[in-house]
Amino acid sequence: MNTGYHFPEPAVFAVVLVSETRKRYLANWLALRPLWLGRIANQPHLPVPGPKVWRAFLNSTPSAVTSPSRSSVTTFSGGAKQDVVEFFEDNLLEMGMASTWAGDVSVDFRGKIIKITSLADPPLDLVHSILWELAELSLRYDLLILDKFLVP
User: Fold this and answer.
1) Residue of 103, 136, 142, 143 whose CA lies nearest to 119
2) Number of other residues whose CB lies within 10 A of the CB of residue 118
3) Residue 7: which pLDDT band, with cuts at 50, 70 and 90?
4) Please, what is the end-to-end C-alpha distance for the chain in angstroms?
5) Mean pLDDT within 45-58
């Protein structure tokens, strides 16, 4: 049975205290969200990332993540960034020097355009909506996996 998570844990977002980091976490998740939902809906058999890979992705920037060979990575942080590139490379768009995977302008969430700059101090209802959706999606996919495991 796969030990990764289909979605990042909502608690990962809740404990972020620095506004720039909060902005990066939310923007990166909202950038990946539509691509990731499509991937797991169409290819549920593929492996899913573990918590360290999720955290590394949420905290990454396109300008900081490069594609060095695995043998040239010497630090834990560098290894985590390489894991992100390897795991999400098919889902990530090349953003160049942007500060988030969503770019630096705006991102879409449920048909609403959200400015990236507003995510440093996001409205509470937006954060609640994102975290609720993550918790609900995680539960649904966990139940689907459990159902497939119990009734092959």
Assistant:
1) 103
2) 14
3) very high
4) 13
5) 88
Q: How far apart are CA 85 and CA 53, in angstroms?
A: 10
| Residue reference for tokens 């010497």 | 74
Inter-residue contact 48 to 7 (CB < 8 Å): no
Helix H, strand E, coil C: the string for the chain is CCCCCCCCCHHHHHCCCCHHHHHHHHHHHHHHHHHHHHHHHHCCCCCCCCHHHHHHHHCCCCCCCCCCCHHHCCCHHHHHHHHHHHHHCCCCCCCCCCCCCCCCCEEEECCEEEEHHHHHCCCHHHHHHHHHHHHHHHHHHHHHHHHHHHCC
What tokens appear for 94 in the block? Answer: 């090349």
Lowest mean pLDDT, pick from 22-36, 46-60, 88-102: 88-102
